[in-house]
Amino acid sequence: MNKIKKEHKIAIIYHSVHHKNTEKIAVAMADVLDAKLLTASEAKKHDLKDFELIGFGSGIYEADFHKTILEVIEINNLKDKPVFIFSTSGVKQTNIMKNKFNRNIISTLSRKQAKILGSFSCRGWDSAGPLVRLIGGVNKGRPNKRDLQRAREFAQEIQKRA
Ligand SMILES: Cc1cc2nc3c(=O)[nH]c(=O)nc-3n(C[C@H](O)[C@H](O)[C@H](O)COP(=O)(O)O)c2cc1C
């Protein structure tokens, strides 16, 4: 695996393909944390061991993070590594739903013995699926200014916890 030049101490790794909703959140958090932004496909080519803090973000597809994010986690040694997770989804993540969407990533990160510092979620514009398409999509304009502000505040909080 390639080594990334150590110009950043923090990495944010994301997968965002539907409307780039998650990318907007990733960019807002990276701005606060001065983090290196990598797509999950880019991250797969690199060794992440030199990063002191890593965020993993994804749109929710079929009730889960995208598998490339899970693959990045699998191939890296994350023992005791401070990490955080974030996602955007069509459906609001209530406490019950949050556990559902995050179930795989949390169990994978726990098995890898990473130190999970927090998780963030917000709704994202969703025009997938025949029913949703029929009504022109849901959550148009999300993430909005308020979501991005929440993302920035979450990143500040993570910085304090790291
Ligand atoms: C193939 C596909 C499957 C999806 N499955 C779900 C789902 O199970 N639950 C949900 O709440 N949203 C679902 N969505 C909506 C996305 O989670 C939402 O639009 C998200 O913000 C997309 O993020 P992105 O633009 O960063 O890819 C799905 C979208 C797509 C394209």
Which architecture would the CATH scheme give at its second level? 3-Layer(aba) Sandwich
How much of the residues is beta strand, in percent? 15-25%
Biggest sheet statistics? 5 strands, parallel
End-to-end gap: 26 Å
Class from secondary-structure proportions: alpha/beta
Task: Report the order of strands and helices.
Answer: EEHEHEEHEHEHH
Number of helices: 6
Cα-atom radius of gyration: 15 Å
Provide the CATH superfamily: Flavodoxin domain
In brief, what are we looking at here?
40% of the residues lie in helices and 23% in strands.
Written account of the structure:
The chain has helices at 21-33, 40-43, 67-75, 95-111, 130-134, 145-161; strands at 2-3, 10-15, 36-39, 46-47, 53-59, 82-89, 115-123. By secondary structure, it is of the alpha/beta class. It has one domain: Rossmann fold (3-Layer(aba) Sandwich), CATH 3.40.50. The protein has a 5-stranded parallel β-sheet, with helices on both faces. α1 (21-33) packs across α6 (145-161) and α3 runs parallel beside α4. The model has no long low-confidence stretch (mean pLDDT 92). Bound molecules: flavin mononucleotide. The site of flavin mononucleotide (FMN) has 21 residues, from α1 and β6.
